Structure formats: C-alpha cells, structure tokens
Amino acid sequence: MSGVFVRRRRLVGALAATLFIAAALAMTPAQAESITVNVDDAQTLKLPDNVATIVIGNPLIADATLQSGGILVITGKSFGSTNMMALDRAGKTVMNTTVQVTGPKASTLVVVYKGVNRESYSCTPECLPRITLGDDPKFFGDAMSQSAARIGGGGSSAPK
Question: Where are the domains of the chain?
C-alpha cells in the first residue's frame, strides 16, 4: 500500500511540474521573426486574434496601424531598428519582435554626389527627384516643397 502512495506522490509531483512549465511558457510573449521593411514602403502582417494594442518603440523609425481582422500594416519611416509589441485587452504582451527598416530598393534609385552634397532620383523609367533621408538639405527641401504644393493643390507651399 505504501508503494501506491509513493507512485501517486511522484505522479502528482510530475503533473505539478508539467503544469508549472506550461504556465511559464504561456506567460512568455510570442517572439515573431524580425520584420524587415524598406523606408517609405508598407508591409502587412497577420496578428493573433486577441491583439488589441500595438506599441512601437521608436515611431520615428516605423509606424504600425492595426486593422480589423488582426491585420497589421507596418510602414518604414526612417533607417534603423526598433521593437514592436502586441498587447491583448488586459495589457499582457502577446508578441514582441524587432522591426528593421532598410534603405530603398537600389534597382530604381540613382544617387548623385555633387562634392559632399547628395541627391537621390527615382528612375522608373524617367529620373525624377526622390525625397530620401541623407540628401542635401536644399535638394530635400525643394523636393518636399514641390510635393507639398502638388498634394495641397498649389497652396502656400509653392516652391520659392
């Protein structure tokens, strides 16, 4: 009879250890593979069903928008790396991953150096100014002004 109690005690101990390990694993947030997106590009990602909030570590590097159906749209804003966390309604972290933002695709980008000043052009098929981080401030500002004027319908943002 004492052998039955010993086996039962071992079985209860093993069951308790298994439940403890399972609970510890359930508390650990899911680690998704690193997400890579180009500057000025967007990428979609399917999230677990219970995600209610997205947190981006550095919103200057990437932006994320949670859509219905658990679809996340990630947009690269600047070069670099940041983290992204997905939280459920209770505030528990269900996913924690790295978002890596890289440069634009080199196949359509032409970079011109005029001394130390850099200018970027998108050549698809004609080469036109492209607003790219790291360009000469005057070139960048002129391209931004033209873009803003076009978007705004030629308002007060017209080139000077």
Answer: 1-28, 35-102, 109-151
Contacts of residue 86, Cβ cutoff 8 Å, sequence gap at least 6:
47, 48, 51, 53, 54, 55, 72, 93, 94, 95, 96
Q: What whole-number distance in Å separates Cα of residue 50 and Cα of residue 4?
A: 44
Query: Which pLDDT belongs to residue 28?
Result: 41
Cross-strand pairs, 113: 118
> In this predicted structure, what is the pLDDT of residue 146?
86
**Which homologous superfamily is 35-102 in?**
Immunoglobulins (2.60.40.10)
Q: What is the spatial distance between Cα 84 and Cα 75, in angstroms, rounded to a whole number?
A: 12
What is the reported pTM? Answer: 0.61
Whether the pLDDT of residue 148 is over 90: the answer is: no
Residue with tokens 């650990």: 28
Residue 101: closest CA among 20, 37, 28, 10? 37
Question: How confident is the model over 14-61, as pLDDT tens digits?
Answer: 555 554 444 444 444 445 578 999 888 999 999 888 899 999 999 999
Query: Closest Cα to residue 38, out of 5, 62, 8, 60?
Result: 62
